[in-house]
Amino acid sequence: MTRELIIAGFGGQGVMAMGKTLIEAGLKEGYNVTWVPSYGPEMRGGTANCSVVISTEPIGSPVVTQPNELIAMNGPSLKRFEPLVEPGGLVLVNSSQVENPACRPDVRCYLVPSMEEAGKLGNFKVANMVMLGAYIQATGALKLQTIEEMLASVFTGPKAHLVELNIRALQAGAAYVG
Amino acid sequence: MTRELIIAGFGGQGVMAMGKTLIEAGLKEGYNVTWVPSYGPEMRGGTANCSVVISTEPIGSPVVTQPNELIAMNGPSLKRFEPLVEPGGLVLVNSSQVENPACRPDVRCYLVPSMEEAGKLGNFKVANMVMLGAYIQATGALKLQTIEEMLASVFTGPKAHLVELNIRALQAGAAYVG
Amino acid sequence: MARTQVVYERSHGLKDVETHYCPGCHHGIIHKLIAEVLVEMDLLDKAVGISPVGCAVLAGDYLNCDFVEAAHGRAPAVATGVKRTHPDLLVFTYQGDGDLASIGAGEIVHATARGEQFTTIFINNAIYGMTGGQMAPTTLLGQKSTTSQSGREAARHGMPLRMSEMLSTQDGMAYCERVCVVDMPNLHKAKKAIKKAFTLQMQGVGHTFVEFLSTCPTNWGMTPVDAGKWVKSDMNRYYPLGVFKDLTAKKEAAEE
Amino acid sequence: MARTQVVYERSHGLKDVETHYCPGCHHGIIHKLIAEVLVEMDLLDKAVGISPVGCAVLAGDYLNCDFVEAAHGRAPAVATGVKRTHPDLLVFTYQGDGDLASIGAGEIVHATARGEQFTTIFINNAIYGMTGGQMAPTTLLGQKSTTSQSGREAARHGMPLRMSEMLSTQDGMAYCERVCVVDMPNLHKAKKAIKKAFTLQMQGVGHTFVEFLSTCPTNWGMTPVDAGKWVKSDMNRYYPLGVFKDLTAKKEAAEE
Amino acid sequence: MKAKVTFNLDRCKGCGLCVSVCPKQILWLDETVTNVKGYHPSGISDQDKCIACGNCARICPDSVITVTKTKED
Amino acid sequence: MKAKVTFNLDRCKGCGLCVSVCPKQILWLDETVTNVKGYHPSGISDQDKCIACGNCARICPDSVITVTKTKED
Amino acid sequence: MPKELWKGNEAIAEAAIRAGCRAYFGYPITPQNEIPEYMSRRMPEAGGVFVQAESEIAAINMVYGASAAGTLAMTSSSSPGISLKQEGISYLVGAELPAVILNMMRGGPGLGTIQPGQADYFQATRAPGHGDGRMVVLAPAGIQEAVDLMQDSFDLADRYRNPVMMLADGMIGQMMEPIEWKETEPRPPVEKPWAADGRDGDGKTHFVTSLRLQSEKNERFVQSLFEKYAAIERDEVRYEAVGCENADLLIAAFGTTARIALSAARRLEKEGVRAGLFRPITLWPFPSRALRELAGQKSVKAVMTVEMSMGQMVQDVRLALEGMKPVTFYGRTGGMVPEPAHIAEAAKKTLSEVK
Amino acid sequence: MPKELWKGNEAIAEAAIRAGCRAYFGYPITPQNEIPEYMSRRMPEAGGVFVQAESEIAAINMVYGASAAGTLAMTSSSSPGISLKQEGISYLVGAELPAVILNMMRGGPGLGTIQPGQADYFQATRAPGHGDGRMVVLAPAGIQEAVDLMQDSFDLADRYRNPVMMLADGMIGQMMEPIEWKETEPRPPVEKPWAADGRDGDGKTHFVTSLRLQSEKNERFVQSLFEKYAAIERDEVRYEAVGCENADLLIAAFGTTARIALSAARRLEKEGVRAGLFRPITLWPFPSRALRELAGQKSVKAVMTVEMSMGQMVQDVRLALEGMKPVTFYGRTGGMVPEPAHIAEAAKKTLSEVK
Lengths: 178, 178, 256, 256, 73, 73, 355, 355
Ligand SMILES: Cc1ncc(C[n+]2csc(CCOP(=O)(O)OP(=O)(O)O)c2C)c(N)n1
Ligand SMILES: Cc1ncc(C[n+]2csc(CCOP(=O)(O)OP(=O)(O)O)c2C)c(N)n1
Ligand code: SF4
Ligand code: SF4
Ligand code: SF4
Ligand code: SF4
Hints:
The complex is a heterooctamer, with 2 copies of chain A (178 residues), 2 copies of chain C (256 residues), 2 copies of chain E (73 residues) and 2 copies of chain G (355 residues).
Chain A: E1 2-10, H1 15-28, E2 32-38, E3 47-55, E4 69-72, H2 75-81, E5 90-94, E6 108-112, H3 114-120, H4 127-139, H5 144-154, H6 161-177
Parallel strand pairs in A: 1-4, 4-5, 5-6
Antiparallel strand pairs in A: 1-3, 2-3
Helix pairs in contact in A: 3-4, 4-6, 5-6
Chain E: E1 2-7, H1 17-21, E2 27-29, E3 42-44, H2 55-59, E4 65-72
Antiparallel strand pairs in E: 1-4, 2-3
Chain G: E1 4-7, H1 8-18, E2 23-26, H2 34-45, E3 49-52, H3 56-68, E4 74-77, H4 79-84, H5 86-94, E5 99-105, H6 121-126, E6 136-138, H7 143-160, E7 163-169, H8 170-174, E8 176-179, E9 207-208, H9 215-235, E10 239-242, E11 249-252, H10 255-270, E12 275-280, E13 282-284, H11 288-295, E14 302-307, H12 313-321, E15 327-331, H13 340-354
Parallel strand pairs in G: 2-3, 4-5, 5-7, 6-7, 11-12, 11-14, 14-15
Antiparallel strand pairs in G: 1-8, 6-13, 10-12
Helix pairs in contact in G: 1-2, 1-7, 3-5, 10-13, 11-12
Bound molecules: thiamine diphosphate (TPP) (2 copies) and iron/sulfur cluster (4 copies).
One iron/sulfur cluster (SF4) binds next to helix 1 of chain E.
């Protein structure tokens, strides 16, 4: 099993963190994983994306050029990367940030209104966690629980209350596509 | 005909100028000529030497490593370069600056007391001209007259009186070995 | 009849493109000022800018005059090559503090010493912007950066370099002023400084140099507005604004 | 009984070898002074000198302590590498004016700015010695060199650089003095300056710097004695002798 | 006199510098809007109070703003 | 007191600096001699006049000179 | 030891410290900025020296100074910055000083891009500055290997008193991957009697220099360097060969490109083409003999070299084979990274041409 | 025209001016100091610009500036100074700027010696800085040829918008030889619509840069560079072959070494050995095809390369022959100059081994 995933969006939407979370969970579950950021000259703004590979085999190319999965956090990202997705692949669209979202007919497509879902939880910042939950539910790539456990070790001390919020965001995303 | 000559001495004895004079004369007489200085890190003092090639053929190597002629202006130069001279070659020693001058038996050797000869002309500075005169006389490589003519164009104006002095030095050298 | 007058519109000294600069970064403001001065002095056709390695590397895509991009720190040498061979052009460099004060310290010292007839626009934002916030020679004591994570210390990192002060000790420096653009009065002063530098350059007085205290909200980790405040509160204290050298002032004084 | 006392003999801070320096060149004198100070301070075993590219490239063959030869102009960087990793050693560089003021301007500015705890011995002979007499940044106006054959001109070549003055504007500079060895009183002063610099270095006060106005009889085309006179008559005028910076003086004054 | 402030909204990076120099404090960043670049752009709350000083336009690093004034003769 | 000036003649480069700093003007360059290096080395004309100030030795770039003084107790 | 996720640049920095590196001098440049950043924090904790130099030139000369005084030191940069270090590298070679230099290559020429590249291969393997000289050049294909090779880099540098270069493409520095920190013996302190760190008790001085004014002496020195290099060529060659036995085609590639080529080989396998991967780990000394032997197999029709450049290592491949088998080249450059599908296509094209 | 005696360095400087060079930026270094010295005097007379730069790095960047503004400029240095110019050279390549760079090579590595060397061959022919790129590299064997090639250097630089390097060994600069100044047409002014020398009347701006942040763009650019290089390889190859027909042995050598090899060939002739001299004049592009043809003659038993280095050009010789004939090497290095007698001996040894 080899998943080749691209996560893309505006700088600041947390796409890099999403990728890192995924590979950390992947490592915990015993997979081979790699993460590669695409790095541009701009410090802020512009688009950002990363390649994630999660595999049961030793990983060859860490750069994903023909993804079988895509998480598009905004319109430009969808436009740029959707054509590269392998037929039969999966596309997850952050429909809160894409006007008139629409997908190729030959891919499995989910439209997730991450901002709205996050808004319901009272914090727009967890929109990326919503997407992550949706991704995991849609693919079954990893266990939600793995990430939930990780969150407990990330947010400690005064930030401990964020564990709960993030878990709820994950679950909201999962529920949305579930 | 190819003459491969090394001229060596203390810095300041005019060995470079001797070499340049020879190739200029050589050029005037229609030979192919090259001159290569050996350049050391010291601005003053130390030893200096140059390679001169005068030939009827196109010149291959401009660096002389096995000279058939040597002008040694001081002891260290004689010591260093005499062993390299081809058997049957010519060695011209400035005996004024070499203690107990002596030559290899298998070379033609001339001891020229250049300082004494120059002293007789009232100017130690023309010692190198004395050696040059001696060289030309001993080898027949070039015509004395060629150099005499060159001198006239080098020393002009207020320096014109030096022409005569230099010519006499050349001739004194030539006479000494002649 | 109604007469509509334009109080301010985008200068045609700028190309009609977006910049890649972060929100609120002063690079954009300083570019504008240069553009405005070039237009006002009618020099767009005769100007050659030298862009640095740094956030302003693409300045030639933004300003509407000819540009040459220089290797990191070497803008003064490149400008020397341009100006010496084309003495009638207006030549200016645009350098960050990493570029000018660190790797390019030798080049700016010598261009100044030789009195090269170009203008240096020096953008001091106390940090390496483009590479992500490393310590610059101009980083303030106590200021955090990715390579001085617990704040700059004099003992380990040395004291911040005051380039205008140091370079003004040289005879080749004709005009040197430190300005900023954090508010309107300073912005106006800054524009005047550029104009004066360009004017003196065209008169062949010597090297002209305008230092801008600038911001890097991104790598300082501040909002653009707070960044402006920090320039006033902290940077200004170590890097006082003002004229450090003006050969023409002396001359004028002497003539009086 | 007769007691024989040695007034002066060759310092054992020097190796027993001949130098390649030209007759009367002050490099030889300055080497001696360093050697004498190292012996007097008992530092021969703890000293590392950094020799430059220039006539003094072989200094490590002459002085009786450890040496590292540096790339042209980079002695301050090399010294930084030595001293930072070996803080208990006495580290000094020995640089000519081509080396320090031209190609190495960036390195000396930054070593000073960082307050690197080594001593710079700067030999200003107003010319490139080893390469045969080209113009240096310190060549005087009007002075002839092989690359300014009709004399240095301010307009074409810029004004000569006063390194001590420029570097002393920096906070990292702890002690900076300009000296010469053209006569006995100056020679004594020069030796004291070296001793003071070495002493302050070992106390960790900051960067210490001694500039020597030196001679290059060969490339100046003068006798060694006339060269000494020219230092006094011409060089001294543009490069005044004296102390430009002394942090300890301030401290002492403050303590009084 | 009637002052007018217009914005090239797609170019705005929402930095707020214009807001900070407006003497009449009539500029604000519209948090409800996200432009093509992903920023909350600047806007004017009360045109009529504008005195056409041009400060906002002059300081805007991205030359987003044009200020005009119209005089009735 | 008896002063003594000795020269390591082969090391002398004939620069004349010692000559120039001798307060008693008793040093000179011997033009009649050429040493191994090809220079006319320094020499002292009148030992007895020497006051053992050491100037010549201190300034000599090549550390050619040793100066001693002997006191009769 | 459990596996940990590390970013390449940070892992490399940490590995250097664990390998005993106690002095780092560097200057920011993308894509290796995490190295000085990490070092600025960790080196003082480890009792070592970190200086952000004023330039790449200053950095390499600080390394030279630290090394001359006996401290094994390191610097890192990326392509334009490495060009600036060329004189300093030649001085390290000429003064026989150990040092480790990391080039996290980006796409050139000039300022180029900040995306990965491999076009500094010639510079690294053939021209460490001016004059005759060589560096050992190590090319990791992943973070674990980079970490392991860091230890080796310092060992090799000390053993041969010569600079060692780790030549990585920007990808290696930017990516994250799980790695395992192996429990290694602490580096035994290396005796450096030649170091300029104060005279020995007996007054014997050390003069570290690359100046040898007499040509005879300099020639003897250079010859002695090359004796050292001959020993390195004999003893230190490293490579990896994956699926090369009875392969139809060998793909020669290093660094990230080799990983991508491996993906391509897997694709080819599915299409019935047996493509072996030959991956030099030491770029100098180049594993010529091993390549020649593998390429000599009857089954092998050709060797295709894949690089992120217009073709540089391919010269070493051709020199190794000397016409024995056809050699082809497929490359992307200027910051572009080859794709497995395109490599696979190129491989099939190569095979169709030689058949 | 009558022949005049010139010192190599001065003749080269004068030739540059006669070829239309109007800007020289340099920094002193032996053995090429006569060039900046001559230029400092003559360039202003010729209406050109001379600046003694503060360093080699400043010099190459001044050249970059002058060239970017449309003035064909030149710099010169020797080995360590050329290493310092590597970044600048890569920028010239990346910005497609014409320029002439002279390397009057000395013996390395490091500070080395000031005597002649040829060990910067790899650097010049393969690694002009970082990234993919090439310079045309011209190697004169005497002063007359250096003078003639100067004109060509400027022509080639302008024609291909690429830096050109003249690679000479220190001997060429220091020696004196008679030369003839040929009456050449004055260089026609070259149109440089791309130059940054003020906007065109229509407001069109020029931005001279080597930055191409998008890798796709940068790759396309590098590919276009290599199309240019392919044209150069097709059209600009130069070499000289002396006595190569039916030779027993070819001696491949460039620069002064080639002259010395010629002396050796004459000696060999007397001993009945027919040794031909193959002398590349363009080191890049290397005259591979010509060499291959000559070496392909039945009479030729082997090719021996002679260099003032530990063997660099020999790689190009091996790449050209790809095993077709045995290739041997004889070299002196570190400032030593080969002697005809020793070359002749080595030639006989080569022949005895292959027979
Ligand atoms: C030779 C070289 N070294 C380093 C770099 C990497 N680099 C790019 S921009 C930069 C400095 C940016 O800082 P600054 O000059 O202060 O400008 P800013 O980005 O803050 O405007 C550096 C070090 C480079 N491109 N080339
Ligand atoms: C990189 C480099 N550039 C140039 C040189 C040539 N070079 C040798 S010494 C020297 C300068 C000598 O002048 P200075 O530093 O004033 O010392 P001095 O010889 O006068 O004592 C130069 C330029 C070199 N060796 N290396
Ligand atoms: S990184 Fe800093 S200097 Fe660069 S554009 Fe952003 S705010 Fe401006
Ligand atoms: S060239 Fe000048 S500086 Fe060098 S040793 Fe001679 S006199 Fe001294
Ligand atoms: S200053 Fe310009 S970019 Fe910033 S918020 Fe105002 S209009 Fe937008
Ligand atoms: S100072 Fe020394 S070298 Fe000079 S003449 Fe006197 S003894 Fe000789």
